[in-house]
Known about the structure:
The chain is mainly beta. About 5% of the residues lie in helices and about 45% in strands. The protein is globular. The relative contact order is 0.11. The model is unreliable at about 1-30 (pLDDT under 50).
Amino acid sequence: MKMMLFKILCILILLSGISCAKKIDEPKVDEESAVLLKMILPNVAASGSTIQLQGRGFGSDLTNVEVKFGEAKAEILELKNDVIEVKVPVLAGGTKVDVAVNLGGVNSNLKSFRVRNIEEIVLEEKDTVEWTENKNANIVAIEQGVLSYNEQVVKYIRNGKQLLEVEMGKPSIVVVADEEVGWGFYNFPSIRRSLSGQLAAGWSMAHDDASSYGKPGVGINSAVSNDGGVTWTTVIKGPTGAGMLLSNGDRISISTPAAVPLEELELPVPLATLQDQSTYGRVFRVYDYSKLPLQLQGTYQARMKKGQTSWITERGVLNSPKLARYADGNLFPIVWWGDLQETSDGLYICPYPGFEINQSGGISPAGVICYKSTDFGKNWVKQGSIIYQPDLALDPNGSKRNTLGWTEPAFAALKNGTFLSILRTQDGFGKSPMYWTTSTNKGVSWSTPKVFTGSGVLPKLLELNNGVVAMAAGRPGVQLRFMLNSDPNDWTEPFEMLPWAGSDLQQSEGNVNTGASCGYTQLLKIDDNSFLIIYSDFQHKTAEGQIRKSIKVRKVTVKKV
């Protein structure tokens, strides 16, 4: 018995010694100064290679920063936006070292790096990196997340546990502009499956205003792919779209007709004339929907009957008490933009703009109105509304919006029965938050919208068959997030598709044509674990060294661990 106790005591002493030795060997990390090394990209490279260290709290003074690979000091090439570009020092091939950033005598945490042998055969096409989550406590802080510009596999880690494995494919070029063009051109890309099964991409080739709605663009704005999105060929006319396949075998597609000049219409007296106070400066005249001419009522859509191969235009009927519609300047557009979702009991959509007549007979800032159809889209009945109610503590521009409140809502009917919507507020007042809200009664009532990002435009949602919910949004850049723990208040840090540029780095929207992208994306599911994302890249460098707008597609595979 004494011998056993003696052995246990020895083991405890040994373990204590190991623990103490570990603490002594690690450099001091000052938590208050938050000098944090998040990721080395790539984390396997040869001596002399240029790599990036991404983190937080690096400052902007190169003379105050030192990077060490073990005991070897690295040459710093650039420091920008908490990304340090360094040259790997001369170290023996195969060596594994710890890398740390020292800022004014304060060390960051350590990240492991392996020196690749020059003659080593690279077996993996994609670099595999570990990303340890370190979110800013300020949820509206606009910060870069996981730099994912090229092929790589990211192991997403929280509290020492890997939650996701995200494989980012190589960006494929769909089209590159042959000259400098303004806003609206090579913008707003889309991706879909055609009726033949081909992948088809489209993009805008027109000015971004109501005068362009429902009209053909200038020049080529379509491309097709026959190899899953790896290569693309531009075409004068895109293939016949497949729309959304319904459970009765029909296909449906919502369209936007050409806006009608006000001088061609006989209109009632408007309920309100609203002047957008932001830099957008738009003027909205809002009318009682029930008093509008028939051509301004209902929904414009097309249907392909089961077994047919051609689209027939039709008008859907709206049953929506207190509904109002608007004129934009001197034009009257029929805008009904939203995501269609079919469940076992009907077809749902939550489009915008959602102007409604309030209790005092006036018009409040537009929200989102949700509709249900039980006859496959021929008649639409209002379910409920997502009323505009900004969080002024986190969204200081919220009270300034007197025209469009919530815009560009993403909508998904999740497999667990919950309806989820992500809402944009960003406008001419500058970068502003995105909100989330849910409904557990099929859109009749919604939770109070809650801020969860500092900025973002045109959010897009996609639930994969493996249960992962992906969300894309833009401005700054193009960002992907993934929901964690089936909780719409819990998302990963953003995966960055593009380096930020120009207006991305400003709090105001500024000249959005100088940013990395228009920020508009679309997601297309391709299997249980994967999807394609299409986006614009405004800073694409051609072989001749020119900067041109482009449209790109990437495959993303994400799995829960």
